[in-house]
Design brief:
Helix content: under 10%
Radius of gyration: 23 Å
Distance between the termini: 43 Å
Number of strands: 4
Structural class: mainly beta
């Protein structure tokens, strides 16, 4: 298998597998893999396309609720969000 993309994929036996490392839609949304098969007499090459799905960051530690006293008037931290990937902001 060849590609100009510097791909994190490999052919193992008769399977295309993703090797180690994360894919990032914002960096590269599509990988074109040129797969070549041979039977010692003839050779065939075809292109296999891998499309990376864009998914938003996951909030990994959001409690389901917080309790506040009714007289609470000052600003109070309720929770700190932990995200699975970098995010510029949460709203």
């Amino acid at each position: 298998m060849t590609s100009a993309d510097g791909v994190p994929f490999a052919v193992t036996g008769n399977q295309i597998v993703k090797t180690a490392g994360a894919l990032d839609f914002e960096t590269k949304a599509t990988y074109n893999l040129d797969v070549t098969c041979t039977d010692d007499l003839l050779q065939t090459t075809d292109t296999y396309v891998v499309k990376v799905q864009n998914v938003g960051p996951k909030i990994t530690s959001l409690p389901t609720a917080s309790t506040l006293d009714e007289w609470q008037t000052a600003e109070k931290l309720l929770t700190t969000l932990t995200l699975a990937e970098d995010a510029a902001d949460c709203v």
